[in-house]
Each structure stands twice: as structure tokens, then as C-alpha cells.
Amino acid sequence: MLLRSKQKRALIEADIMKYWIYAIGEVCLVAIGLLIALQVDNWSNEQDNRALEQQYYESMLAQLVKDKDALVTTIEQAQYLSDRFDLAISIIDKNDREQSALLGAITIELKDYADFRQKSSIFQTLVNSGEIKHIRNKNIVSTLQEVESMYSYIERLEGVHEQAVMTLIADQLIEIIQIQPLEVKQPEALYGYVLKNTFMLIRGLNVETGSVYQQTAQDIDSAITMIEQELEINNQE
Asked: Given CA atoms 130, 131, 133, 139 in this order, what sign does their dihedral have?
């Protein structure tokens, strides 16, 4: 009886051991399955994030190239106006009355000013929506922040220039020159110190704004180069 009891206990213990081994095996299989599923899900999410990052880079690159082209045109316009205003100041200083028609034409151009004013920003949209988290390269983010800062500075400068045109120049143009057809009505005022001061003031605004345009163009070039390099790296992965 004692022997049978020991054998029975041994069989029960063996069955229990088999059960635990089986249970542990099942748990391990489930755990491994969950880990694999999680890994696959993480990999899938990572791929989705990389695809989204690629899309954002391409969109930002397209906008930056477009902005750079517009900025180059604006820089050329600002330089043209600065050169014209320099010429007007020279004519006034020399009191060259033979150039009164040219001086009158340049005076009309005082109402013109370079106007970049970038209206929308994919980068700012990403920041506001929180999607900027998908951009892994923080150097690119930092450079784009600098570009955005320059855009804001340009907008303020152009606002000052516009205000100067509205408050300082409009009345002078109306009093001195008949615009259509073009005719100088007050030749003496055309060569006076008030108009010369106006030319110098507006030229100064042009020079300052032009300098900011140039710096912004350099920042845009840096951002374009960095994004192109990042796109190339992503395409190789």
C-alpha cells in the first residue's frame, strides 16, 4: 500500500509538473507573440512616421524654393529702387535742372517699394498642429525657426516702409507732380531739401530691408541644403 501511495503521488506530481511546463510554455508563446506583434506595430508606425517626415520635407523644400525665387526678385527690385534714389539725390545735389523730367519720374517711384511678405508657412503649420515632432533633424527645425523669424522681421520693415509712403510721400507727390500726364508743377520743390530728405529716408529703408532680404536668402539656402541632404539620407535607408 505504501508503495502504491508513493507511486500515485509521484504520478500526480509528474502530471502537475507537466501542467506547469505546458502552462509556462503557453505563457511564453503568448508573450513572444505579443512582443512580435508589438515589434511589427512599432516598425509599421516607424515606417509611417518616416513616410510622413519625407512628405513634410518635400513640401517644405518646395515652399522654400518658391520663397527663394520670390525673394531674389524682391532683392532685385529693392536694389533697383536704391540705385534710382541715389541718382535722384545726385541730381538734387548738383542742382541739375536739365534732369528735371528724370527727377520727376524717379520721384513718382517713391511710392514703390519692395514687397516680399511671405503669406503662408508649412513649417509654422506643422508647429501649430504639433506635427513638427515628426521632423527628427533638430538642426533643420532650428534653421527653419530662424527663417520664420526673418520673415517676421521683413514683414515689420515692409510695414514701416508702407506707412512712410502713406504719410510722408503721398502729399508731396500730389503737390509737386501731376502724375497723369507726368508734369512737374513745382520745380523748386523738386530740388528742395524736403524732397532730398525724403529720398534719403526711403533709400535708408531700402538698404536696411535689402540687407535683411540678403540674410534671409542665405538662411533659406542653408535650410534647402539641409533638407535635400536629409531627403537623400532617407531615400538610402
From this structure: negative
- Residue 141: is it exposed, middle or buried by C-beta count within 10 angstroms (0-12/13-18/19+)? middle
**β-strand partners of 229:** none
Can you give the residue ranges of every domain in the chain? 2-236
The H or E element spanning position 183 is: strand 183-184
Name 155's Cβ contacts closer than 8 Å, sequence gap at least 6: 117, 118
Instruction: Please state the three-class secondary structure of 114-175 as a single string.
Output: CCCCCCCCHHHHHHHHCHHHHCCCHHHHHHHHHHHHHHHHHHHHHHHHHHHHHHHHHHHHHH
No. of H helices and E strands in the chain?
7, 2
Strand-strand pairing, 183-184 and 177-178: antiparallel
Is the pLDDT reported for residue 225 higher than 60? Answer: yes
Q: What are phi and psi of 130, to 5 degrees?
A: 85, 0
Residue type, 117: R
**Burial of 116 by CB count in 10 Å (0-12 exposed, 13-18 middle, 19+ buried)?**
buried
Q: What is the pTM of this model?
A: 0.74
Q: What is the pLDDT of residues 141-191, one digit of tens each?
A: 999 999 999 998 998 888 888 888 777 777 777 777 777 777 777 888 889
Quickly state the pLDDT bin for 74 (edges 50, 70, 90). Answer: very high
Inter-residue contact 126 to 135 (CB < 8 Å): yes
The predicted pLDDT at position 2 comes to 47
* CB neighbours of residue 131 within 10 Å: 14
C-alpha cell at 77: 527690385
